[in-house]
Amino acid sequence: MVWPWRRKSRRRMARVVLEGPISGSTRQRVLKALKEVEEREFPALLLRIDSPGGTVGDSQEIHAALMRLRETGCRVVASFGNISASGGVYIGVAAEKIVSNPGTITGSIGVILRGNDLSRLFERIGIRFDTVKSGLFKDILSPDRPLSDAERELLQQLIDSSYSQFVGVVSEGRGLSADTVRTFADGRVFSGEQALDLGLVDELGDEEHARRLAARLADLDEDNAKLVTLGKSKRRLSNLLPGSRLLKPLLERLNLELMGSGQVLWLYRP
User: Which of 51, 94, 132, 162 has a Cα-to-Cα distance from 145 of 20 to 30 A?
Assistant: First the structure.
């Protein structure tokens, strides 16, 4: 017996939006939506990405969930919006096909780790820290002192390991050799048009173009297959306040700065 809701899903495709910096809350929302895509047996997923990237672990978990979804037979197409950089690329390469606007900012394949050396400021205002630690590197990236050479070398090894993981996933997802990926995986950004030439995306077009491609891959009617958006972000009361549209980008920028302190990130930071 075929349940009616399953027959209905066969005439529809799912849409999930990944927007803004990738963090724990993003991961929870997107993973919940992807689980629903699998449970409702949608034949195709349109993944809209408009993100500068973010935290490494959260990006990896979303990528892994997309790969598992594809194993069920669901056809996944990614649509790059205004920006899909760094962690956004990492997640995007889990899709079977990627469609990008010609002017989309993409790329920024690489890893960044930032700390703050405030030791001179603390000295001027008379603040001194006393630290008791269990190991030589326990207070690495502490803001009250500069990095030692040994600490810098240790962190570079960490960055190199994360970078190799990033290159490997892009290589596998896009069918490129690791050496080829490394020729442009130095943190630089590209337009969607340039990304097409490099093999990072498959086609140029808008979200509607990506929807039609997903419909063809899933053998759905391009004109009649409807999108069902899952995992929508909850509306906040602050969004109703005057000036909220101006405040939102400022809060996102502040969130990026706070998120980037002492964390390994796959993030485009202009």
Answer: 162
Predicted TM-score (pTM) of this structure: 0.89
Which residues are the active-site residues? 86, 138
| Lookup: tokens for 23 | 């963090």
What fold, for 4-111+178-267?
Answer: 2-enoyl-CoA Hydratase; Chain A, domain 1 (3.90.226)
pLDDT digits (tens, 9 = 90+) for 61-109: 999 999 999 999 999 999 999 999 999 999 999 999 999 999 999 999 9
For the beta sheet containing 264-267, the strands, ordered from the edge strand earlier in sequence to the opposite edge, are 53-55, 264-267, 112-113
- The Cα diameter of the chain in Å comes to 76
Residue 45's identity, in one-letter code, is L
Contacts of 270 (CB under 8 A, 6+ apart): none
Q: Please list, in sequence order, all residues whose beta carbon lies within 8 angstroms of the beta carbon of residue 102, skipping any fewer than 6 positions away.
A: 191, 192, 193, 204
